[in-house]
Amino acid sequence: SGHDQLPxxxxxxxxxxDFDMILTWTPGEGSPPxxxxxxxxxxxxxxxKWIKIPQCKxxxxxxxxxxxxxxxxxxxxxxRVKAVSGQFQSPWVESQFKEYHLDxxxxxxxxxxNVKENSLHVSASFPLPSCVxxxxxxxxxxxxxxxxxxxxxxxxxxxxxxxxxxxxxxxGNYCLSARSxxxxxxxxxxxxxxxxxxxxxxxx
Length: 204
Fold this sequence. Notes:
Layout: E1 10-17, E2 20-26, E3 36-43, E4 46-52, E5 63-65, E6 77-85, E7 88-89, E8 93-94, H1 100-103, E9 110-115, E10 119-125, E11 138-145, E12 152-158, E13 163-166, E14 172-183, E15 187-189, E16 196-200
Antiparallel strand pairs: 1-2, 2-5, 3-4, 3-6, 6-7, 6-8, 9-10, 10-13, 11-12, 11-14, 14-15, 14-16
């Protein structure tokens, strides 16, 4: 049958990173150089039905992005991968189960800061896969004077909203940073983004 002749993929893990759900693995020890991999997934809605993923068939890389393949973001899924080379293949190796809605890990947003005469206009863009655009992603924004620990917090701003901050009373160097947030069972947060600093109302 030519089965079980190739070393099986190792460290098969379903993980979330930066809004994506990704299956990763490492080549089995002693794998030939020309080996390719094929991935399938199974959802807890339909156990024992392993579904093909066309874009992760006979691939050379050691990861497969499942995010926009998932039929339901509120159901646990797992994936499996096998190695193929010529007429030889390895056994399938399965990951653990994960659910996008509960297990998704967020990335910090990228801040867009527009300085006007007496105000700051701040918006955040998120590196989101298109299939999860409709989720109620939010962000929290911090504003502080450079060098100060005293931060003004703007919490739970819907992703597409711009925040307008009145800067009439602010003078000097001010910094902004934001984190993505998302309500699943409780609030999840990303790390805060790298601060963006702007000079407000310079004298003269």
